[in-house]
Write a structure and sequence with these properties.
Elements lengths: L1 H14 L8 H6 L1 H13 L5 H22 L9
Helix pairs in contact: 3-4
Length: about 80
Amino acid sequence: MNKLLLVFSAALAISGCGEKIYDAAYYQANHEKAEGIVKKCQSGEESGQNCTNAREGLDKYKAQAFENYMLGKTKELPK
């Protein structure tokens, strides 16, 4: 019984250590945060799925902003 409790506790501790993973849609809606994550990924401070999702979300945001600009919905291009 004690071994089972120990294994369960260890598994619970390990599973709670990971950072929260946001999807590309989140980063598309929060492009400022995506830009910060991409910079951290480029400098090596961050790695993993958030890097991939932040790049994808930022690309989608910029593509949508460019489309809106070309259709005359906005006056400025995204930076």
